[in-house]
Amino acid sequence: MTDQAFAQADPEWLKLIGEARDWLAGPLGQLLLEEERRLLEEELARFFGGYLVSYGPGTEGPPRAGQIQHNVRLGAPMPGVQIVCEEQSWPLGEHAADVVVLQHGLDFSLSPHGLLREAARSVRPGGHLLILGIHPWSAWGVRRLFARDGLAKARCIAPSRVGDWLSLLGFALEKRRFGCYRPPLASLAWQMRLRRMESWGDAWQLPGAGFYLLVARKLVVGLRPLRQSRREPMGKLLPMPVAKVSRRDLDS
């Protein structure tokens, strides 16, 4: 049934998601996701509500959020996805979710603006949108320029630019965090030796991290109360004197 549902899906989009999924399932992608999971679950632990919706090309299930009742993952047909849909056709009503997470959704998207609008539409007023992306000004972003795997297809949109998009969509940026300070080295031995870089980077939030995490809140548009007109006591109306003008004055 999934194959039938996606028979008319954009093959370019399916290919992009497949390449991104393969890269994230590899050693470097797993390293990045491991560090992201830690920061993401720290942020999600302070939210509560009915529904959390996550979207992204990763093969893992939705992130853990203990205070949210329902945790749903949607996207292309892959392991861990509960609701299958295209990136700009989410089967959700407006304001349906308390929290929406885009984990590398903008990095591997044919239309980042369209995807972000769809995610923003799904967040209730006062709810939160969390975005994780590969930092372009890092060793990971530089590696993308020379990569021959799925990382080469990543857009690596700067966090400042994403923040501008969020502002236009009616969101207030509450927090910006960074993580994965180890360089994208394929050697597991070197990754273990450089593990201490993560604690240093977390403590100082130094520039050059491999990914960023943006936490934005959807602003509540309130109704402006009508201004009450002041009722002053009115005095008695008196006729104004009218000056008499003779014809002689008009002719002169």
From TrEMBL:
Keyword annotations: Methyltransferase, Transferase
Residue span(s) of domain Methyltransferase type: 83-131
GO terms, biological process: methylation
Superkingdom in the source lineage: Bacteria
Database matches in Pfam families: Methyltransf_11
GO molecular function, one term: S-adenosylmethionine-dependent methyltransferase activity
SUPFAM superfamilies with a match to the protein in the record: S-adenosyl-L-methionine-dependent methyltransferases
Keyword DNA damage: no
Record's protein name: Methyltransferase domain-containing protein
